Amino acid sequence: MSTPGNGQFADAESLSHHVAQQCEVLGYQTTQLSGNKNALMHSLEISNKGDSIAVQVKNHKAKTNIAQVCKFSEFLDLDSSDRFTSGWLISTSGFSKPALTHVRTERPSNLKLGTCTPYGIRWNYDPQNADLDARDSDETSCSQAGPNDQAITYIGVFTCKGGVGKTTVAAHLAGAFALQGYDVILVDLDPERNLRKLFIEDQSSEDETASLYVPAHRKGFTGSTITVLNAEEWDEQQYPEIKIVICDCSPVLNENPARFIRRFDYCLVPTTLSPLGIAKNGDVIIRTFRHIRSMNQQADMLTLINCYNDDGSFVRRNRLLLNALEKHIISYQKEDKKCELINPLDAKIRRNDNLLYWGFHIVDGTKPRLAFNEIFGRSVPRTDFLQLAEYLENKTTIRELKKTGDNQTDPSPSIEAAA
Ligand SMILES: Nc1ncnc2c1ncn2[C@@H]1O[C@H](COP(=O)(O)OP(=O)(O)OP(=O)(O)O)[C@@H](O)[C@H]1O
Ligand SMILES: [Mg+2]
Fold first, then answer.
1. Which domain does 224 fall in, by range?
2. Is the separation of the CB atoms in 189 and 298 below 8 Å?
3. Are residues 190 and 81 in the same domain?
4. Global pTM?
5. For position 72, which CATH number holds?
6. In what order do the strands lie in the sheet with 29-32?
7. Does pLDDT of 11 surpass 90?
8. Ligand 1: which atom is nearest the Cα of residue 349?
9. Is the same domain home to 168 and 120?
10. pLDDT tens digits for range 265-316
11. Strand pairing category for 153-157 and 266-271
């Protein structure tokens, strides 16, 4: 028999047999499903004392990602899945950090995530066992690298068009990284200073530093900080622990200090799929690409769909609009390969009222917070931004972000937990 490991089973079926054996050891009766494996959301059903569990196995080299976890979770919520009391998603290669952050924040009660090892299933997420998180001893601190190891990823959020979500995307992407244990710096390059307003409590204060503490979602860990600075305040030497800098740009290119634009490793170009704007948008996006490239030769320029409407009745319209947009981008790729349209299947930001009303505290004087609040236990923006963070983490060649993919690096253990 093949040895369990990253995609090392000959096929999902042999892995499924291996998992079935392990379930039998745990006292479950198992039924292997046959039929069109591609059409099946699960390959195994197991039962024990009234529990009926759908098991899906993933035998990929890449870690199981947040989109795959969301898909299995949605399958469990279908009426046709009513006969299952829960579902197990078993991977041979483990789970991406955003995928784990997603389940640990959302805490679905009917889903378990496990990694198949030669010695049995190692649970990564179990709703019945919150302590599991704190016990994961192979998870290390994000902030371990010293100043010499510093490798900062600069992410710019820029487009020549105003009001398409640059500030919203910059802030919530920072939130998604903070949820995963990174302290993040948000540099507010827009003279409007919207980010500052959105991150301070006392709007009349002249000198309050805009910041937000994002609590850890795991017992025994401390959370992370998001700090908003202006261009003059940011100095790499003063922040040796920082790995991620996100720049919220002004739509007027000349208003953004060139020294920041030159540092971008990635430039996210948010756009909406508004029909009126699509022809124009193509224009705006190409102009945006050219602007960035005139100052920065290395950045990957990534067009991100914001305010995406995933209601089923919009499928056709979305497809046509995306095709139109893609045409503009493909034609520009002839002169510049390092630009792309992010496939909404990989990452997109859905239109969401919580994002629309984000910043309401400016009006009602309450504490600043991100639009990650849950409704019936779910947060669409949080899922979308974790997926966007995952997309960037998969792309990045920066060592610190890459490393986390292998070791499931997580937030720093708190002082109490370490004692
Ligand atoms: N996915 C979304 N769903 C709902 N509302 C959104 C979404 N993204 C952005 N918005 C709303 O759209 C408006 C414009 O967003 P934002 O201020 O982030 O754009 P911007 O590009 O930074 O604008 P500017 O060019 O003025 O700096 C805000 O009211 C924001 O709350
Ligand atoms: Mg803005």
1. 147-418
2. no
3. no
4. 0.85
5. 3.40.1350.10
6. 29-32, 44-48, 51-58, 86-91, 111-117, 120-125
7. no
8. 1
9. no
10. 999 999 999 877 676 656 889 999 999 999 999 999 999 999 999 998 999 9
11. parallel
Q: Do 318 and 251 reside in the same domain of the chain?
A: yes
Answer yes or no: do 98 and 193 share one domain: no
Strand 86-91 and strand 51-58: the pairing is parallel
Query: Residue ranges of the alpha helices (H) in 5-160?
Result: 12-25, 66-77, 97-106, 131-135
Higher model confidence: residue 168 or residue 417? Answer: 168
Average pLDDT, the chain: 85
How many Å lie between the centroid of ligand 2 and the Cα of residue 239?
A: 25
Q: Which atom of ligand 1 is closest in space to residue 163's alpha carbon?
A: 23
Q: Bridge-partner residues for 120, per DSSP? A: 117
How many domains does the chain fold into? 2
Across the range 175-199, mean pLDDT stands at 94
Which stretch of DSSP H or E encloses residue 290? helix 275-295
- The number of the ligand 1 atom at minimal distance from the alpha carbon of 169 is 18
In angstroms, the CA 50 to CA 54 distance is 13
d(CA 252, CA 89) in angstroms, rounded, equals 46
> Is residue 418 pLDDT above 50, yes or no?
no
Tokens coding 117: 């090892």
307 lines ligand 1 (CB under 6 A): yes
**Whole-number Cα distances in Å, 30 to 22, 24, 79, 171:** 10, 7, 22, 46
Q: What is the pLDDT of residues 364-386, one digit of tens each?
A: 888 899 999 999 989 999 999 99
CA distance 42 to 56: 4
Nearest to 297 by CA among 269, 325, 267: 267
Q: Please give the residue that has the higher pLDDT: either 2 or 290.
A: 290
How many residues comprise the chain?
Answer: 419
State which of 194, 356, 380 you would mutate to test the pocket of ligand 1, scoring each by most atoms of that ligand within 8 A of its C-beta.
356
Order the strands of the 244-248 sheet from edge to edge.
Answer: 211-214, 224-230, 184-188, 244-248, 153-157, 266-271, 300-305, 339-341
Q: Whose CA is nearest to atom 10 of ligand 1?
A: 356
Which tokens sit at 244?
């991620």
Q: Given pLDDT bands bounded at 50, 70 and 90, which one contains residue 15?
A: confident
